[in-house]
User: Which sequence fits this backbone?
């Protein structure tokens, strides 16, 4: 290639990454959380936390499962400084069981077992059919008769759809998508960016 060719390639590559960084920064500035965290959200951590993370997730998404473990470590690291709110964004076209899993999580949440059910779904991501969801409800020791009735009537489907609509308005296109104190945080290169954004917000 020669010295000149190598330098040209290096400059082009550097320009590409700088342009991509600019685009990601612009996207983060363009999109903000359209629906503020409120009493209806499933939130883990104190309301007085300096930092609130909102995750739009899909229980059948492999990347969300990876993030589930990473976010757990992050929450332990920052302790009471951070609160996590989880919102549903099932990608129905590629994850056929995700929406029903989200409904089941809401049904469990109505009985005070959202986070236990949330963990069960990610820990058993390959098994999200209706019979599996009922098994997880039984393990969560919630009222199965109520759970069955609410799932049959799709009581919480509207709530899941409201999460999706709010996510779309916030610029969510894929999962997982995170917002830190209302600002979009790009994690396409990994959760290090999320950790850095939380760290800056805690120190601010």
Assistant:
């Amino acid at each position: 290639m020669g010295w000149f060719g190598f330098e040209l390639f290096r400059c082009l590559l550097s320009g590409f990454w700088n342009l991509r960084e600019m685009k990601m920064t612009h996207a983060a500035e363009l999109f903000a959380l359209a629906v503020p965290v409120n009493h209806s959200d499933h939130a883990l951590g104190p309301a007085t936390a300096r930092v609130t993370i909102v995750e739009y997730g899909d229980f059948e998404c492999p990347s969300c499962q990876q993030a589930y473990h990473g976010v757990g470590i992050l929450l332990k690291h920052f302790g009471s400084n951070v609160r996590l709110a989880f919102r549903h964004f099932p990608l129905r076209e590629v994850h056929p069981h995700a929406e029903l899993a989200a409904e089941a999580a809401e049904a469990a949440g109505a009985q005070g077992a959202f986070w236990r059910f949330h963990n069960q779904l990610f820990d058993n991501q390959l098994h999200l059919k209706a019979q599996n969801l009922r098994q997880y409800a039984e393990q969560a020791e919630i009222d199965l008769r109520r759970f069955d009735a609410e799932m049959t009537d799709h009581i919480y489907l509207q709530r899941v759809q409201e999460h999706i609509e709010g996510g779309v308005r916030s610029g969510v296109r894929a999962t997982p998508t995170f917002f830190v104190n209302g600002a979009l945080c790009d994690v396409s290169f990994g959760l290090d960016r999320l950790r850095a954004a939380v760290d800056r917000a805690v120190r601010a």
About this structure: The longest strand covers residues 51-57. Residues 11-27 have pLDDT under 50 and may be disordered.
